Amino acid sequence: MSALSTLSAQTVIWSDDFNDEDISDWTLIDADADGYKWFVAQIVDAGGSPSSVYPTPVLRSVSWSTKALKPDNYAITPKIDLSNYKQGDKITLMWKVSSADEDFDKEQYTVYASKANTQASMLASDVFFNEKSLDGVNVLTARTLDVSKFAGESSVYIGFRHHGVSDEFSLEIDDVSLVVGTLAVSEVNSKKISVYPNPVEADFKIDLPATAKNIKVEVVDLTGKKVASFDKADSYNISNLPKGVYILKVKGDSEFTQKIIKK
For residue 84, which of 187, 178, 182 has the smallest C-alpha distance? Predict the structure, then answer.
């Protein structure tokens, strides 16, 4: 799926949210030749309904199926034309990433930008992002990569590579987009937010940017039910909640989602 639209100070050049479950225009490479490639999956709950944490389809690669795997899997976008843009334009790749199983989440992946859709060209690129472990990243979390170097190129490809791990579980990618322009305030600020302590017994703090405004904080259980909500404060108390895993959502000028554990 592709799109061309305006968002705040950005123009979306190309995007894919995988909701149509069609990646026939992507190039999928099974470099380790084990028969497993990236695929589109709708993650469901125990009742077979779409998961509240993953309500829409995602792009997925696995490091465990019926046995331990050692994935080296590439998913490469269709050709993206950046010939209408010039050097000096700010072009940013945006995506969300997670590892669904919190007990087996030490997945590694690398994202490359290149002028060809081959494994060799991806490995040779000097524009890439590597995340060595998704430990604790169990909800879709935003990441970005500056690909402004490719402004003016008529053929640009983005490659997602799942590699360097074995016997964990899965890696999920969603909401991939290429945008030109200045990132919105919420996207910039989200990179500067931290939550501590985590796990939490009673009170936790959120390290928000000083400029953050209109902040609302929500705590949601894994069924999607909102169990607590707060305005911006110095700390937040969830001592009344049962022990377990929750999703913390920060809304307003700073947008942020993170798993928290109540002890």
Answer: 178
